[in-house]
């Protein structure tokens, strides 16, 4: 059982973490279109890829094998949708712990 204040803080923490992940995925998508920026700002690019690689690489491999859209890579969009589903699942579990 969580009290109301602890539950609210947990909701805020989860929401903040996922918001940062969304923006990092969007940054990765933009970096894929700007190789010169990626080379010029190597440290930033490296951090973005280190954060997103654990879930983007398997997703990109899955999309490459099973979804054929030519040169279009929709894996960042799919990743954001999957993260949104995971966040809602975590929110429901947290809500049940607060009841």
TrEMBL record:
Gene Ontology, cellular component aspect: membrane
Transmembrane feature ranges: 20-37, 74-98
Key words of the record: Membrane, Transmembrane, Transmembrane helix
InterPro entries: CCB3/YggT (IPR003425)
Name of the protein: YGGT family protein
